[in-house]
Amino acid sequence: MATRTPARRITGTPRGTARTGRTASVAAPTRRAPARTTSSSARSSGKGSGRGSGGRRPPARKPARSGPSWPVRAVRGLYLGVAHGLGSLTRSITKGARDLEPEHRRDGVAFFLIALALIVAAREWWGISGTFGLVIHAVVAGTVGLAGVAVPVLLLWLGFRVMRHPERGQANSRVAIGLVFIVLSVCALVAIAEDTPAPSDGFAALQDAGGIIGYLAATPVVTGLTEWVAVPLFLLLGFFGLLVVTATPVHRIPDRVRGLYDRLTGNHHPDEAADDDGLALAEGVSRHDGTDPEPRKKRTRRTKAQRAAEAAEAAGLDEYAGDEAFEKAALLEKEAAAGRAAAARSGRGAATQRVGAPSPAVETATPDGAAKDTATAPVPGADLPPMGRAEQPMLDGDTVYLLPGEDSLGKGAPHKTRSAANDRVVESLTKVFEDFGVDAQVTGFTRGPTVTRYEVEVGAKTKVERITSLSNNIAYAVASADVRILSPIPGKSAIGIEIPNSDRETVVLGDVLRSSAARRTEHPMVMGVGKDVEGGYVVANLAKMPHILVAGATGAGKSSFINSLITSILMRATPEQVRLVLVDPKRVELTIYEGIPHLITPIITSPKKAAEALDWVVREMDARYDDLATFGYKHVDDFNSAVRAGKVKPLPGSERKIAPYPYLLVVVDELADLMMVAPRDVEASIQRITQLARAAGIHLVLATQRPSVDVVTGLIKANVPSRLAFATSSLADSRVVLDQPGAEKLIGQGDALFLPMGAAKPMRVQGAWVTESEVHSVVEHVKAQLKPVYREDVTAPAAAKKQVDEDIGDDLDLLLQAAELVVTTQFGSTSMLQRKLRVGFAKAGRLMDLLESREIVGPSEGSKAREVLVTPEDLPSALALIRGETPQAYDQDADGGAPPAADGAGDPYADGTDGHAPPVAKDYHDDADTDPEHGWR
């Protein structure tokens, strides 16, 4: 009993272990080994105390003295050192390989297959000798036998397929399965043809037959079913493998054979033209490049739908502009490609670029369930159907106008769907979530031209606010300050983290106008916007917006967007369809478009003339509404359709010639300059245009680099539903433009937030870029077609209109008498007006204030009489100014000059463009901006 008690205390858990916590629990296993030794020694000493315990100690020390000798330890150390060195070298190489772009990895695989094909061909085709050749022949012929002659061809095909079609990576599994079936079939048939030699006959016989694969595949079938049954079975297996490789269902075999025959014989069918996405063009929609097929002279058969459409056209107008229930201002490529939605619903495409997956074709889901294949988007370098338009006659019927071709706009680089930088960002985001203990993971991402949106899914019991609160930590981890978090992504149960790409992509306007979204409509007011964050092209219809406000700081891309907008109109619309009014207070931004036939007036550079042009637009709008009301139409499109169909006739007794109204697009490049010169007039004109001009076919584009509340007023914002915000300098500017934050986090150079009419949240887009050389090419083409025909009344003030100011009201007669009395007596006194005009003090004081506002008398000087600023000689001009008439003192011929001669020699505008406007150099400023003595004010 006494000898067992110490043993139990040593082997049991010490009391100190429970008290010391985690440190003691970790150290406890190291203390148990000596406790067991002591316990065994204590037991042995208890059983035989007469023998003594000293003889048991030497055996316990033998394991410490036992071990390998020093030569063995030296060899083992040398081996471990070499192994560690090779491992470090391998890890460094593989780490560098992981940093390679996916495109480079695919090219490396392709080059490896081509090199392997050359090596096999060197032995199987050209019979090189030597040990290396024997090894190659033993491996190839021993595996597939005589079929090894075709192995180089197969490897070359695979290599070129990987290089030419990297987007077909998802089809690799299908191609591999089909090739396995074909190889088994060929090897088995060759083995049957050579009487199925066995390995016992020697490997030379196997190499001259179907190899080991042919032996293993043919022997069981021939033994069990005889050769007469095995041959058809393997032929059927090879045919099925060929169908799998070519992705040809059985019912499509006749179509594929017919297509192959047409390709070999050159028998093409131009009437069955289809777009790049596989969708046939609608009836009457041209390819817009001048290569449209000639119409067939007679139709062999008409369907019921065609007969019904012809009957409806003969009966009357088949549709109206207001028939569409839900109008969308912005057109996305994923919405136009409706044929891809079925593939997405059937589960054949991934929602996004999955993390850890290869980077072939990427399909991104849309909020409405449609899918978009970003890898199959129009590649700028591919051969795409051209986008030019057919010839369109002008109003006079004898002038043909040909729109610019697609060669006027260049092509951009192919769109990347994945890069090594995206993989590194995914790792950084995953590490942030692990460090802060957030149950969330990155499930995929969609790469855009400027930013990449990473999709994050949170756990069932994790708050979304935990992700949004980590914005600063995420920005620190990815080394980018411009991180934008969307919670959630519209249409998805996921959080979006938008991070700028280190390798940005330039979106060119030509690719946007060649996209399927732009080709699906022939509307002349469609413009190219750019690409969204998912890599899809975005176009917008200005007729459905119906007005847009563009704002952003200097250098954010506002002027580039204006150039893309105007160039899009020139590429798609004729002068009879769209007329332009360009206002350029900067004087250098839009001068490149001077002289294009779409202009209804020379480019306006004076803010005062711009205010007068907006007033003319209001008058034009009222005139159009008068016609719409007279003939009973609600929209200018319906009116134009009726005019072309001959359903609108002039009123009886009227000699007016009724013609379709073109769309009128007013582009103001800098709204702030107009608001500084005439804020009240400009705001009133813009308010009236934006409220009423939509049905009249008049649309405004207002751009400014100063989005403050005094420039973009509440009345303007209330009537301009579409917004495009480039990078702003502050949060307040973003709220002024979008009514929400976000624009202050944009990275500039075309990065924008686009909020079209009807959209709940703005979409992030990269604006399209058009070079100056491309603009010059398009402008020279349209200027060579027609010359501009300007209207003289656009920038001219309404001289014939006598309008009394609102502040005068019914006191016009009293004010005229007061002005005549004050000017003739040269004495401005309120008490004099009371006595002479027999009015009260309040009325006399109001008359004196009105005279002061017209600069007839000076300001009040206490009890003294006011200074009279107008001499008696200038009294007629002052009275005309009060009546709202144009004063004679401001006429061009008031200085005694002779009236213009009949030949135009005395016309100051005779040397202008077509005799309708002053030269450009003289149109930069007017006389009101200069002082004849001191020059510029």
TrEMBL record:
CDD domains attached to this UniProt entry: TrwB_TraG_TraD_VirD4
Basic and acidic residues bias locations: 285-295, 922-937
Membrane topology: Multi-pass membrane protein
One Pfam family matching this protein: FtsK_SpoIIIE
Superkingdom of origin organism: Bacteria
Binding positions (ATP): 552-559
Cited function: Essential cell division protein that coordinates cell division and chromosome segregation. The N-terminus is involved in assembly of the cell-division machinery. The C-terminus functions as a DNA motor that moves dsDNA in an ATP-dependent manner towards the dif recombination site, which is located within the replication terminus region. Required for activation of the Xer recombinase, allowing activation of chromosome unlinking by recombination.
Subunit structure: Homohexamer. Forms a ring that surrounds DNA.
Protein name: DNA translocase FtsK
Originating species: Isoptericola peretonis
Source taxonomy: Bacteria, Bacillati, Actinomycetota, Actinomycetes, Micrococcales
